[in-house]
Amino acid sequence: MQNFIRMTFGGLSKQYFFRQLFFGSFFFAMIIWVQVMNPQQIKYDLIVVSAICTLLYPYSRFVYERIIGFIVGENVFFVAAPFMLFVKLFTMLLCWAFAIFVAPVGLVYLYFHHSRAV
User: Mean pLDDT, to the nearest integer, of 100-112?
Assistant: First the structure.
């Protein structure tokens, strides 16, 4: 069991994992902030789901970057910085929101990738 956890959840580099966790925590902080601003309607289930999405976000983002890397390859696109930042923020939000559904794909990929390397 410990080997399974190491090959899946420990499959990303620490630097990549904590960087993505840092960015994913902004969305979690926004949810908490909105809940605190409206204390009569605090939804604890939303907070729990948001925490799970935040913890799974690095794996969801890993899947997204692998797919985009496959489609785009080594090509470079020159676009306006505000547009690119908007697209980046939008894709981060989508990866965070759907992390519960997308991250298992990344975990399965990491497991098979690391099991072949052993």
Answer: 89
Instruction: Tell me the C-alpha distance between 106 and 113, whole Å.
Output: 10
Please report, for the chain, the start and end positions of each structural domain, with discontinuous segments joined by +: 2-117
CA 73 to chain centre: 21
> Distance between CA 96 and CA 103 in Å, rounded?
10
Residue with tokens 């939000």: 93
Segment 82-103, tens digit of pLDDT: 999 999 999 999 999 999 999 9
The DSSP-derived string for 26-95 is HHHHHHHHHHHHSGGG--HHHHHHHHHHHHHHHHHHHHHHHHHHHHHTT------HHHHHHHHHHHHHHH
Stated pTM of the model: 0.87
Residue range 19-25: mean pLDDT, rounded: 94
Q: How far apart are CA 103 and CA 84, in angstroms?
A: 24
* Phi/psi of residue 73, nearest 5 degrees: 70, -135
